[in-house]
Automatic annotation (TrEMBL):
Keywords: Cell membrane, Membrane, NAD, Oxidoreductase, Quinone, Translocase, Transmembrane, Transmembrane helix, Transport, Ubiquinone. It is found in: Cell membrane; Membrane. The keyword Translocase applies. Belongs to the complex I subunit 3 family. It catalyses: a quinone + NADH + 5 H(+)(in) = a quinol + NAD(+) + 4 H(+)(out). The gene is ndhC. This is NADH-quinone oxidoreductase subunit A. It comes from Chloracidobacterium sp. N. The chain crosses the membrane at residues 12-34, 65-86, 92-114. Its EC number is 7.1.1.-. InterPro entries: NAD(P)H_OxRDtase_bac/plastid, NADH_UbQ/plastoQ_OxRdtase_su3, NDAH_ubi_oxred_su3_sf. It is a multi-pass membrane protein. NDH-1 is composed of 14 different subunits. Subunits NuoA, H, J, K, L, M, N constitute the membrane sector of the complex.
């Protein structure tokens, strides 16, 4: 019976890593040689949901856009925390219900605060 060293356990992982690296690199390489490369002005134009662009893509964007995006992410991620609560709702009973209302209340207060500060106004 051959003696297995500690490195022998990593060989399947190395093979899997090599395959995982070879497949996308191979697909991109084959695609590069197979595709047609005809550059037209329409292809070189920036894509904006099927609408012709009206200005440069590097124009300044209002900070309010980023604030609203961050608020969306914060409130969206916080509502994800309600899912585990909903899964074990029957085990939590009245305590869980009160806890969920407190959590939702904190979210509503935060939303109201952002609204009153004008973080959600576009103008």
């Amino acid at each position: 019976m051959p003696v297995r060293g500690p490195i022998m356990g990593y060989i399947p992982i190395a093979i899997l890593f090599a395959i995982a690296l070879a497949i996308p690199v191979g697909a991109l390489t084959v695609g590069r040689f197979v595709r047609r490369t005809v550059m037209t002005p329409e292809k070189m134009m920036s894509y904006e949901c099927g609408v012709d662009p009206v200005s440069d893509a590097r124009e300044r964007i209002s900070v309010r856009y980023y604030v609203i995006a961050m608020l969306f992410l914060i409130f969206d991620v916080e509502t994800i925390f309600l899912f585990p609560w909903a899964v074990i709702f029957d085990q939590l009973a009245l305590f869980g219900l009160i806890e969920a209302f407190i959590f939702i209340g904190i979210l509503v207060v935060g939303y109201y605060y952002a609204w009153r500060k004008g973080a959600l106004d576009w103008a």
